Amino acid sequence: MNEHYVINLGRQLGSGGKEIGEKLAKKLGISFYDKELINLASKESGLCKEFFEKADEKASQTILGGLFGTRFPFITEGAYPYNSYLSNDSLFKIQSDVIRKLAEEKSCLFVGRCADYILRDHPRCANVFVSAAPEARIERLMKLHDITADEAEELMEKADKKRSSYYNYYSYNTWGAAATYHLCIDSSVLGIDGTVDFIKQFVTMKLKL
């Protein structure tokens, strides 16, 4: 495990964090995980992936109302025995186990999902937060989703609220606060590729790659 390392990347919606993470992982030749964790957690637990999609990066709450009684049954007989109660906390634990298992097996880059907190005891990790100027985020979201500036701003505000609530709830740290991470960077200053190169240089030095 000592040879393996992890990069945990938090991000604001519209900052290009996912693209930055993908490009960085490719440059470093390591595995990249974002939404893929939902499929892996589903396979590991035997639970429908809809459970994980419903709970993805949301703070604790029971999700029974929206799922049980609908057409999302357990996939296998060996599913986690949560009886008739399935909470976001239970799903968070399953996903956490998947993240820890992957980090033991190989070097990885994880986007969001409190991976920096889950892997806080990992001997070789770099925790990065990517932000961007509001106008840059709005412009990016408008292009990505073909929406108006007002719609982009609303989407941005909702995402920030959801992600901060989730992160603060599970990690006991503060989402986006400099003291929480090894590096915080504004992607609108250097652009996507420039940010990738900057983080790569930082990670290389920190982890002595």
UniProtKB/TrEMBL annotation:
UniProt name for this protein: Cytidylate kinase-like family protein
From the UniProt record, which GO molecular function terms apply? kinase activity
Keyword Kinase listed: yes
Q: Which organism is it from?
A: Candidatus Phocaeicola excrementipullorum
Protein keywords: Kinase, Transferase
